[in-house]
């Protein structure tokens, strides 16, 4: 929504109840008047006094600039500014885009897409808002929710006929919010080829994925520690530290345990610890399949944070990879159970 409100910026973060904004903008246009000037020269000449340059990113390297640093074409500039000073700042960097009045949303039948369409209609009052949704029942549902002022198209967003019917060539902005990265990417590329001015594909950046990963592990570990903490076992009873350590050990599949005398431990405790280790191996798959799609993003970036392997995907989609691994996890316990039973 912030990027729709501030076209031309590749990243927008509202701070202090929207009184201040953190913006990232490319200095890569022929009309970027700030290019070739030092940071010290910008205030008063190009920028309002309420604009502060925080960082520059150049050739893959980010740094905090001094007053003597020169802004070069191709730089990514990060600033903090007030909404009132926004117009002058965007103009100085050659971005004079106006708020879009013709918008197409791909994947609008999901929770994210439906909420986005409702907010766009309420806040911007766009002249033309069209939503493409693959599922017929979902398309009928959002048609009832959004009313007759929004055009709902049921079909595949990668189908040229559907894109032609949506008239994406005349759209100012296409927003792709499906749960599949590939669909978002190709829909954006097809829209660009047809003449769409801007495309937006929201999702997790790598830094956000790195933050979500430890938070998800911590939350699940605390939940997994509850049965141990509430049990009457002498090593866990009302001992939060031991319970959390045992749960985290199981979920991270380290194989370590604080249990002493496993042969005499209660069967319920042993079963729960075994389940924690089993669940630990597929937790990231569950997050990718169940949680992230509801947020309108794919789990591939999150999967990348779990491994140092940067090779190509074995299968073309994260969902296929996750389901294949999940199938192995389900079949393996069944196989070992049968093998144990047959061995007597």
Q: What does this protein look like?
A:
By secondary structure, this protein is α/β, with parallel strands linked by helices. The protein folds into three domains: 2-92, Alpha-Beta Plaits; 102-200, NAD(P)-binding Rossmann-like Domain (Rossmann fold), CATH 3.40.50.720; 206-342, no CATH class. The chain has eleven helices and ten strands. The protein has helices spanning 2-5, 86-92, 111-123, 136-146, 160-166, 181-193, 206-230, 240-251, 267-291, 300-304, 318-342, and strands at 9-15, 20-27, 52-58, 61-63, 75-81, 102-106, 128-133, 151-154, 173-176, 198-200. A hairpin with a 2-residue loop joins strand 3 (52-58) and strand 4.
Present the secondary structure layout.
Layout lengths: L1 H4 L3 E7 L4 E8 L24 E7 L2 E3 L11 E7 L4 H7 L9 E5 L4 H13 L4 E6 L2 H11 L4 E4 L5 H7 L6 E4 L4 H13 L4 E3 L5 H25 L9 H12 L15 H25 L8 H5 L13 H25 L2
Parallel strand pairs: 6-7, 6-9, 7-8, 9-10
Antiparallel strand pairs: 1-2, 2-5, 3-4, 3-5
Helix pairs in contact: 7-8, 7-9, 8-9, 9-11
Features:
NAD(P)-bd_dom_sf; five-stranded parallel beta sheet; extended; alpha/beta; 3 domains; 16% strand; 344 residues; Alpha-Beta Plaits; five-stranded antiparallel beta sheet; Rossmann fold
Q: Strand tally, please?
A: 10
What Rg do the Cα atoms give?
26 Å
Q: Which percent band covers the strand fraction?
A: 15-25%
The averaged pLDDT comes out at: 75
Summed up, the helix count is: 11
**Structural class of the secondary structure composition?**
alpha/beta
Count of distinct structural domains: 3
| Helix content, binned percent | 40-55%
How far is the N terminus from the C terminus?
Answer: 62 Å
Sketch the major β-sheet: 5 strands, antiparallel
State the low-pLDDT regions, or none. 305-316
- Give the overall shape: extended
């Amino acid at each position: 929504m912030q990027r729709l409100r501030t076209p031309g910026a590749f990243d927008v973060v509202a701070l202090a109840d929207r009184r201040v904004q953190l913006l990232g903008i490319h200095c890569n246009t022929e009309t970027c008047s700030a290019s070739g000037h030092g940071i010290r020269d910008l205030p008063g000449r190009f920028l309002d006094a309420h604009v502060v340059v925080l960082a520059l990113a150049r050739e893959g390297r980010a740094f905090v600039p001094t007053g003597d640093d020169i802004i070069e074409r191709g730089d990514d500039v990060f600033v903090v500014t007030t909404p009132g000073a926004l117009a002058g700042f965007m103009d100085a960097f050659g971005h004079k885009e106006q708020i879009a009045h013709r918008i197409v949303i791909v994947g609008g039948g999901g929770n994210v897409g439906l909420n986005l369409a409702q907010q766009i209609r309420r806040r911007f009052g766009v002249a033309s808002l069209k939503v493409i949704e693959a599922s017929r029942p979902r398309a009928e549902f959002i048609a009832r929710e959004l009313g007759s002022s929004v055009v709902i198209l049921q079909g595949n967003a990668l189908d040229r006929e559907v894109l032609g019917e949506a008239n994406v060539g005349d759209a100012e902005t296409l927003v792709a919010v499906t749960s599949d990265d590939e669909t978002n990417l190709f829909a954006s590329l097809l829209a660009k080829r047809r003449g769409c001015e801007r495309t937006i594909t929201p999702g997790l950046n790598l830094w956000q994925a790195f933050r979500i990963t430890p938070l998800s592990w911590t939350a699940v570990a605390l939940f997994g520690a509850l049965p141990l903490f509430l049990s009457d076992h002498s090593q866990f009873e009302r001992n939060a530290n031991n319970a959390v350590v045992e749960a985290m050990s199981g979920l991270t599949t380290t194989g370590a345990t604080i249990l002493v005398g496993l042969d005499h431990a209660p069967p319920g405790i042993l079963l729960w610890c075994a389940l924690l280790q089993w669940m630990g191996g597929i937790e990231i798959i569950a997050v990718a399949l169940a949680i992230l799609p509801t947020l309108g993003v794919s789990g591939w970036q999150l999967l990348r944070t779990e491994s140092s392997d940067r090779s190509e995907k074995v299968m073309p989609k994260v969902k296929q990879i996750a389901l294949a691994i999940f199938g192995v996890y389900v079949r393996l316990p069944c196989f070992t159970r049968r093998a144990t039973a047959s061995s007597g």
